[in-house]
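QA checklist item 7 of 12: single-chain prediction sanity check.
[x] sequence parsed
[x] length recorded as 505
[x] structure emitted
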Amino acid sequence: MEFSSPVLNYTLLSPMLILLGGAIIGVLVEAFMSKALRPITQLSVTLGSLVLALVQVWRIRNEQSLSAAMGSVVIDGPAVLMQASILIISLISVLLIADAQQFTALAAALPGSDEERHAMQSGNQVTEVYPLTLFAVAGMMLFPVSSDLITLFVALEVLSLPLYLMAGLSRRRRLASQEAALKYFLLGAFSSAFFLFGAAFLYGYSSSITFTGIRNAVVGGGGNDVFLLIGIAFLSVGLLFKVGAVPFHAWSPDVYQGAPTPVTAFMAAATKVAAFGAMLRIYYTVFANAQWSWSPMLTIIAIITMVFGSLVAIAQRDVKRMLAYSSIAHAGFLLTGVIALNRAGLAATLYYLLAYGFITIGAFGVITLVRDSSGEITDLNRWAGLGRRSPKIAALFSFFLLAFAGIPLTSGFIGKFAIFTAAYESGNIGVVVVGVLSSAIAAFFYIRVIVMMYFAEDNKDSLTVVIPSPLTSIAIWVSGAVTLVLGVYPTPVLNFINTLATFIR
């Protein structure tokens, strides 16, 4: 038996390989370098890896290949856009993650134990969050470019497992953080099981695990339609869980609230790009000819998600839980782009994901600055009068909230306008109407927070706004600037996305 070596296009795979290499270096740094040098070294390795990967993505922006890794990875215009978005969002997120005050000094220690207190007093800060971030980003980059079900599942696990751990690294309220990590892990395991069941049924339908083989079976129509329907349904559960769509959203509020705020920002922004990227590729290429089987299901889920997220967010008194339900509503808005099944829907969704990522990072970056002696303050009642105590921070947070609401001159408005236009052109008028009404409902609780900050009576408690570190300041101001620029002058970015928004098959 003759051995044939695998054929890999290392140039096209290089962005992901760079990140995996950086993650391995980070593990070695954590194991062997002195504690005094670890933080700056880990940060340098992480930022350097992300920048190098972004440079490589730019170099391959015009490349197209269905066989970058023996048919398991596809590189095309949307793949480049999604990988670039993930890397840019991750770069900004790492600037927030660099705030060591957000993370426990020793994750392995029991909350409140002598071991934990000793680690904090001695300054023995572990930095495993950096290689975990790189592993997660590598998985996110592989997820939307996978072209067979096994690679897709491997990518799903590679991006998910580090996030389960990162959710439990909060410095304060350790028990709540660990509870969030456990919930995320258990529900994520259930969703992965559904994903595998779906893959098995699709294999039974098509006798293939590749996207090309499944698509050919769908076009030919020779398989068992029951297997196809069950396979699409179960596979969709795994994907909808990652984006936090109803009824697979239960993890979002608890994880958003319990996880360290920089991790919440990273998770909320980057994971959505990866998950929706995979959904777009699957529904736009593999199941495009079976639209009759999944479009009604996704339409109903999109409507319920938009309405549920917007209504429940009104009742929240914790700012991180409010943004969690806001994220659920935005998942519904993004699903309208998937349902559209046209080029305009693809381009609009990619733009929306990029814009939403910057808004999210900026908003959570501001939250990290509002603290008292016990740590961050997320109780909205205690934000009353923040506009008088810190006008600049309140103005920034208000701007991000208005962007979430889709107010003109923000990237949120352009994103919603583009995605609703694409849905309208595809004939999904009902979804557009519900989306507009849900946006109006969502505007209420965003504006309520603004009114509370500027017009409510100051509660005169010990709340303070800390001076941000240089890296946190960069993350917040860059997010604000991008949100404004993409809202005022979106044409160059939209045109660039339109030129690349075509899947190869």
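[x] summary fact logged: Strands lie at 370-372, 375-376, 464-465.
[ ] second reviewer sign-off
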